[in-house]
Amino acid sequence: MSAPTVDNAADAGSDTVLALARAAKAASRELAVTTTATKNAVLRAAADAIEAGQQAILAANADDVARAEAAGTSSSLVDRLRLTPERIGGIADGLRQVAALADPIGNVVTGRSLPNGLALRQVRVPLGVVGIVYEARPNVTVDAFGIALKSGNAAVLRGSSSAASSNAALVSILREALTAHALPADAVVLLPSHDRSSVTELIRARGIVDVVIPRGGAGLISTVVREATVPTIETGVGNCHIYVDAGADLDVAERVIVNAKTRRPSVCNTAETVLVDRAIADTALEPILSALQAHGVMIHGDEPGMIPATETDWADEYLSLDIAVKVVDGLDGAIEHIDTYGTGHTEAIITENLAAATEFTTRVDAAAVMVNASTAFTDGEQFGFGAEIGISTQKLHARGPMGLEELTSTKWIAWGSGQTRSA
Amino acid sequence: MSAPTVDNAADAGSDTVLALARAAKAASRELAVTTTATKNAVLRAAADAIEAGQQAILAANADDVARAEAAGTSSSLVDRLRLTPERIGGIADGLRQVAALADPIGNVVTGRSLPNGLALRQVRVPLGVVGIVYEARPNVTVDAFGIALKSGNAAVLRGSSSAASSNAALVSILREALTAHALPADAVVLLPSHDRSSVTELIRARGIVDVVIPRGGAGLISTVVREATVPTIETGVGNCHIYVDAGADLDVAERVIVNAKTRRPSVCNTAETVLVDRAIADTALEPILSALQAHGVMIHGDEPGMIPATETDWADEYLSLDIAVKVVDGLDGAIEHIDTYGTGHTEAIITENLAAATEFTTRVDAAAVMVNASTAFTDGEQFGFGAEIGISTQKLHARGPMGLEELTSTKWIAWGSGQTRSA
Question: Which Gene3D superfamilies match (chains A, B) (predicted)?
Answer without folding.
Answer: Aldehyde Dehydrogenase, Chain A, domain 1, Aldehyde Dehydrogenase, Chain A, domain 2
